[in-house]
Fold this sequence. Notes:
Blueprint: H1 2-7, E1 10-16, H2 23-32, H3 42-48, H4 54-65, H5 71-88, E2 90-97, H6 99-103, H7 109-127, E3 130-138, H8 143-153, E4 162-166, H9 178-186, E5 190-195, H10 201-210, E6 215-218, H11 226-234, E7 239-241, H12 243-248, H13 260-266, E8 270-272, H14 277-280, H15 284-294, H16 299-311, H17 317-329
Parallel strand pairs: 1-2, 2-3, 3-4, 4-5, 5-6, 6-7, 7-8
This protein binds hypoxanthine (HPA) and zinc ion (ZN).
Amino acid sequence: MKYFIQNLPKAELHLHIEGTLEPELMFRLAKKNSIKIPYKSVENVKKAYEFDSLQSFLDIYYAGASVLKTKEDFYDLTMAYLLKCKEQNILHVEIFFDPQTHTNRGIAFGTVIEGVVGALNNAQERFGITSFLIMSFLRHLSEEEAIKTLMESLPYKHFIKGVGLDSSELGNPPSKFQKVFQMAQNAGFKCVAHAGEEGDSSYIKEALDLLHVSRIDHGVRCEEDKQLMQRLKDDQIPLTMCPLSNLKLKVVDDLKNYNLKRLLDFGLLVTANSDDPAYFGGYLNENYEAIAKSLNLSKDDIRTLAINSFKASFLDKEVKDKYIEKICQYQM
Ligand code: HPA
Ligand code: ZN
């Protein structure tokens, strides 16, 4: 199964670039940029990655991101992830970045995006990996701040495919961001949102009804609402699920109890993704391997997840079809 997963062509649709910051790079950048981090060693950092909720992770994740300062830092961060993609046979990626995490500590929007885009372009030329960027608004901050970020992004609009919504979900429902999502949609951005990770199924419904998203990030809690389940199925609204993330943040107690296979069997357009691989103990292939084992997935289930990853992407139909054909032909 490991080799089947390794060589299978895949897309990744739920990946925070700040969540790919490995402890080794964190240390190197902290030293280079003279930034203090509360860890003595790489081992020390790894030990700190014990989470009991989304918030306990976010606190450490935002602190880690503080070592990123220059365009080169963002380039190095992104290139390290893209090298992983090459290694794992990930042919297409749709990457989240959190501009406010950086602009709020004085890093220019242009510094972040120029570094990230430089690496994306380079990886497309060198490895043929295609990619889109999705700018995420931090939902623990105000809608005014999100609007300000949207305005700041406009000079770089040609680099950005869509907008998303992440950070602390509980108490920050999609309804808080209705206006900025409408503005983003009017400006031609695709819309997605994290919903139903810790928040209940009403967050998913709100994301669909009020933010008009075309994908739900996570969506684990959709099963609480049977009508919603039918709607997700009828409209084939993709869920970008993240198994190891949900396990590490205790959204699920054991991957044997994870609902991904049940949702897939019900007919939802489910995809598997890594979310923040440097923090959750695995990149995309490790996520596929973990659910293959815990949920007893067949090769056909795995193939379906890979096909879904392209179906649910923002690629043009002809490109999607080409990738999907490749997966259908894949034998091992
Ligand atoms: N949920 C919310 N915000 C995030 C996540 C997540 O899984 N990862 C990075 N920011
Ligand atoms: Zn996420």
